Amino acid sequence: xxxxxxxxxxxxxxxxxxxxxxxxxxxxxxxxxxxxxxxxxxxxxxxxxxxxxxxxxxxxxxxxxxxxxxxxxxxxxxxxxxxxxxxxxxxxxxxxxxxxxxxxxxxxxxxxxxxxxxxxxxxxxxxxxxxxxxxxxxxxxxxxxxxxxxxxxxxxxxxxxxxxxxxxxxxxxxxxxxxxxxxxxxxxxxxxxxxxxxxxxxxxxxxxxxxxxxxxxxxxxxxxxxxxxxxxxxxxxxxxxxxxxxxxxxxxxxxxxxxxxxxxxxxxxxxxxxxxxxxxxxxxxxxxxxxxxxxxxxxxxxxxxxxxxxxxxxxxxxxxxxxxxxxxxxxxxxxxxxxxxxxxxxxxxxxxxxxxxxxxxxxxxxxxxxxxxxxxxxxxxxxxxxxxxxxxxxxxxxxxxxxxxxxxxxxxxxxxxxxxxxxxxxxxxxxxxxxxxxxxxxxxxxxxxxxxxxxxxxxxxxxxxxxxxxxxxxxxxxxxxxxxxxxxxxxxxxxxxxxxxxxxxxxxxxxxxxxxxxxxxxxxxxxxxxxxxxxxxxxxxxxxxxxxxxxxxxxxxxxxxxxxxxxxxxxxxxxxxxxxxxxxxxxxxxxxxxxxxxxxxxxxxxxxxxxxxxxxxxxxxxxxxxxxxxxxxxxxxxxxxxxxxxxxxxxxxxxxxxxxxxxxxxxxxxxxxxxxxxxxxxxxxxxxxxxxxxxxxxxxxxxxxxxxxxxxxxxxxxxxxxxxxxxxxxxxxxxxxxxxxxxxxxxxxxxxxxxxxxxxxxxxxxxxxxxxxxxxxxxxxxxxxxxxxxxxxxxxxxxxxxxxxxxxxxxxxxxxxxxxxxxxxxxxxxxxxxxxxxxxxxxxxxxxxxxxxxxxxxxxxxxxxxxxxxxxxxxxxxxxxxxxxxxxxxxxxxxxxxxxxxxxxxxxxxxxxxxxxxxxxxxxxxxxxxxxxxxxxxxxxxxxxxxxxxxxxxxxxxxxxxxxxxxxxxxxxxxxxxxxxxxxxxxxxxxxxxxxxxxxxxxxxxxxxxxxxxxxxxxxxxxxxxxxxxxxxxxxxxxxxxxxxxxxxxxxxxxxxxxxxxxxxxxxxxxxxxxxxxxxxxxxxxxxxxxxxxxxxxxxxxxxxxxxxxxxxxxxxxxxxxxxxxxxxxxxxxxxxxxxxxxxxxxxxxxxxxxxxxxxxxxxxxxxxxxxxxxxxxxxxxxxxxxxxxxxxxxxxxxxxxxxxxxxxxxxxxxxxxxxxxxxxxxxxxxxxxxxxxxxxxxxxxxxx
Length: 1249
Prior knowledge:
This protein is α+β, with helices and mostly antiparallel strands. Among the domains are: 383-533, Calcium-transporting ATPase, cytoplasmic transduction domain A, CATH 2.70.150.10; 546-624 and 1158-1247, no CATH class; 659-668 and 955-1119, Rossmann fold (3-Layer(aba) Sandwich), CATH 3.40.50.1000; 670-952, 3-Layer(aba) Sandwich (Calcium-transporting ATPase, cytoplasmic domain N), CATH 3.40.1110.10. It has a nine-stranded mixed β-sheet, sandwiched between helices. Strands 19-18-28-27-26-25-24-23-22 form a nine-stranded antiparallel β-sheet, sandwiched between helices. A hairpin with a 7-residue loop joins strand 24 (825-835) and strand 25. Helix 15 (542-574) runs antiparallel to helix 17 (591-605), helix 19 packs across helix 29 and helix 22 packs across helix 23 (794-805). It is globular, with a radius of gyration of 36 Å. It starts with 6 loop residues before the first helix and ends with a helix.
């Protein structure tokens, strides 16, 4: 690694300065279609950039002239995901247009089925080497693989397509088609319309207003696209990228660009004039958010200069100096074996350094593996140059600086950190703000300069693009000399697996790391964030669905009136003995023709029976209702600075008709702030706590809860004081957080220091050391010097926090392991391998080498059922029995339990396993399955160490909210992953279950359909006298009142899986229909969604799902109304929801106040709108009765035409968002008012008639 800056590199870095262009339109090449390349950026300052020179894409190595000419003739990049065929046609785009135009869909290729889409071929990307013949088209010599541009486009329209496409979309509305038909009829004078132009005014106004609204929305999308596409990054130039070729701009595309610039410039000027103040406010808010978000936290491994510019590379692309990175104190040698740390032998000697690397041990990869060939003399033409995101290609080398976002999905090649680590924030993907670590590949970690890239050659094989945010399978391959010191040594094939831990996803932000160099593997529409950006399922409210029927009925009524008028008028003109026969001219040639003409004239006359302003009035009303909901300060949660946010404005009236609520528990009813309360070590329980579940148990038993709770809390407080005193007597732990110490057990402190015997001392210390080692937590130091931990799971954070408070502090995470402060001694443990947690494994393990003895230990933590099934059968019966009893007691107290176990591995066994694990990690097909098999093999024959118990406390106001919703007639189901007993106790503590309720527990002795059917049939017949027939289900659909019986159903996941799999759903729904509350335990995300679907379809009821995590997304999207909690598990649920807020208790106000108001207001508005139109049109019809329906006008035609649009629109609109029958306080005080919404009394077909 060089330690000086060459003149060429200084010149390279000078290219990163700001240069002002001569021509805006050519920034980024001819493929810049956006009319706004100069959007304000960087604190509102306008920054322009020089046209990127075509020479910057020049080849760094000699190439074939013929191939170069062919590359200039043909483009291989995709246009918005469009594949250009040899014929010049774009089948993909034609297919897309065909989806919008039904006539074309019969003539274009059909989209491939889903199974074909998911089976895309793996991609092979090459760097600094020619493509092999099998990857070239033999006819053209061009690459076979085609990759999309990095430019994204989320707009619906372009300046060329806006008018025709918007009109096409608007005339999907049958009411618009009807009024267009009326305008066409009015153009014929025979129908007696005085002014055909005036007849077109209503439909023109409606269409223009809607078009303006759509144009504003699309303009906002275009502005955001333009801002994103023109974001600055740095890519490597003057080094050929063989994966893509130059993009030539066709004449058609130039024509489109000219239109875009012309019309876009006009639109920009108009929007700038209209929305100056709006954009100014947004810029200020965005700047304020950036000031808060662009924070950095100093870590032990990476330091960030807060004053340095993103565009000044003072580090010369080198890792930080030793003075910066080596901030941790010297490692101290521990005089005792780590499985039994004797605190009495602790000294303050710091003269001896211990490195875990000295112990040796196998490693899957050689430390000198590198894609860089040291014997290649680089031409030093390559350099990193500023570019726009849209100019990034698949296969480019990208350099990203601290606090910048990643422009594409990139493999980490190297970082400014010596350990190759970088820290990222994934808030734009999943809403999580805690930092995550990503690791550079070992083989590429030496790429620190642009010249290093010229000396490197490699290829990357990656899986096809997919939507998974947490999985990635790939492998990097290269050729390397057997002896790197000999230039004539033979070349050998090398490879290294690439996982999600080596992948940086587009939209994530680099934090606490000066720079990262990455290799773009997915660009544009193939990036994970774009693949996951599909809109959530469109939902329409119940009233809107029924309204279409009412409009059709009105149309039928209109036709009946017109038919009657036509018949009467035709018969009238058929009479010869009348004055009209002698003195008036007949309109038609015959009486029948006259009747037909009269029919259409009456249709025009009575056109207001179909209210043209109905739909746009409803849109205005729901928009204002959404604003009122967002503005309600009673639903603002200041802890996370989050107001109740409507994300779907079209279903506000459904909030007033919700009959069933399906709720997650963790993070929804609870705070998702985990507190370590109890543990069991070597069969000995520790910890004093009084939990909310214990309070629920006391309520269930009818005890005096207040007195017992006060006594228990006093005992805990007293023991906490004793515990802190004892800890300080033995070891003054600077890392202990006394104010937030949740685990209370003075007895455990005694056993740590040997008062409980040598054996228990060894077990206790080793248990705490295991907690400090087995995790994926990132340590950081706060302003006081105390370590704080960033964990992906709050459970992990609670475990590591407790280990820290008891003397086992995690200080640093290095490339090779972790540094632990063991009762005052700093020790580095080499982490050989980490087997990560996932929802199917339900466990995680780390393999560490003990620094003193060199022994290899596997430490595993996971669900008790999983760990117990993997324990060895030798000599553990007593501890297994006692630990199981302790964990059962913890679960009954409402605590979340985990088991800790370990296995000692021999050197030979681990070496063999490491080879198999490496092979599995390099698999491109079914990598997860292969790695799971290898992990399952080593996570066996475990020795039990103990268990932990963590409490997740209820949110404020949850019991009162559940009680209030119950009084409103809403049935609440809680879907949780807890055990049955834990869920029951939590149910009592949150008022979901009452003391007078009888619990019907659905747990199967045998997981068979016969056993489940027998149990369901028995409960239905014994308690409710039902059989589960179709007639009973039909009757149940008509009943919306709360059940009178005092029953609650509790079902576990195994029984639920059997019921959902077999034809037992009807009996299950009927049983639950008769019960006040339902608890579903140990359920998976898919089971949650299935339960919601079954209840919604079987009972035809309005459902609402509420959750806070990614595992609740399916349930939220399946319900009629989805609510997301903006909690600590990320914002996946919020992003997929229809409404979002910070606490469960806000749900009462959302439903009982805003929901009831919205439902009642919309029902009254719709009824009044139809009523005024019927009164007006029947007046005209009654006038026709007295003049033989000759189509004469009672009022001036202007009044008839503008009756709905101008003269009577505002009263009903104001009624739709201002009318109140009772105040919000009364709505909360009398929740029974909500019953009318559940019974659907406000809007019925009888009310319509």
